[in-house]
Amino acid sequence: MIPIVSVFSAALSAVLPIFFVKQYLTSKNKMWILAAVPFCFFLIYFYFDILRTTKYIGSTYAWIKVVAVLMALAISILFFDEQITARNGLGILFALIAIYLFSTSEVAKS
């Protein structure tokens, strides 16, 4: 079984440093970089936690990446006024298809 809390925590730990770096690039305040560093360590911790608790490593890793992309998209729409284009929608669709393919291939091997 995939540990949902760890997957969402890992995805959030992967997404937040991106926005901290974006804030650093606009303000040139080095505190944003220092705020991003702990999330990288959290991400490593959650990866180890997921590796320890699940046997479907490939599909879990893919879930983390897809959830991170969807979280980044949601945060950019809510806070940075980004627009979803047809190209972005197609990319999200391909990501969801990829997670389905990863999940079914991992289960088929078991």
Q: What kind of sheet is the major sheet? A: none
Strand content: under 5%
Give helix and strand order, one letter per element, not per position: HHHH
Helical segment count: 4
What level of helicity do the residues show?
A: over 70%
What are the segments in which pLDDT stays under 50 over at least 5 consecutive residues? none
Query: How far apart, in Å, are the first and last alpha carbons?
Result: 13 Å
Instruction: Give the overall average pLDDT.
Output: 80
Number of domains: 1
Radius of gyration over C-alpha positions, nearest whole angstrom: 16 Å
Basic shape: flat
Overall number of strands: 0
Structural class: mainly alpha
Keywords, separated by commas or semicolons:
0% strand, 110 residues, mainly alpha
Report on this model:
With 110 residues, the chain is an all-alpha fold. The protein has helices at residues 4-27, 31-53, 57-80, 86-109. It is flat and about 45 Å long. Helix 1 packs antiparallel against helix 2 (31-53) and helix 3 runs antiparallel to helix 4. The mean pLDDT is 80. The chain has one domain. It has four helices and no strands.
